[in-house]
Amino acid sequence: MAKKSKPEVADKAVAEVSAPIGSREVASAVPGSEAPEAATGDGDAAKPGRKTKLAFSIPEGGLEAVPVDHDPTIHRPLRAKDFVDVVVYLEMMAAEHTAKAAKFATKATKIRALGSVKKRAKSARLLALLERTAQLEAMLRADIGDEAVDEVLQVLNNPTE
What's this model's pTM, rounded to 2 decimal places? Predict the structure, then answer.
């Protein structure tokens, strides 16, 4: 790539300044050469590795309630203009954000209970092990019964007997 001379750089700056306001065209670096294509802003072009979502079919006139068959993992998000009344959309969004807020509050409470920053990693591992142990105990109770599991746990808790 050739080094640009000072007049070419100055011409580019003048071309950018003299372009009309709101113009999406980009001035070329060298006078007489073609300008690069302007971005269309469609957003429909699929990016590599990104899963594209399907558009949800909206009836003519709009939705009157939150559709039961709308799956956020498959469909694009619903917008306020998709509904007949914006209140339904706002209630849907309020419910979603309330659920997210509750999840964050639960997570904050758990993390706060784990102790200091240094102890959190070990405490988190211990919590994960305890949760897994509870799952295994529930599976065993379903398979062999409560009495047998109680006997096994008693043996494990009192190994000297």
Answer: 0.46
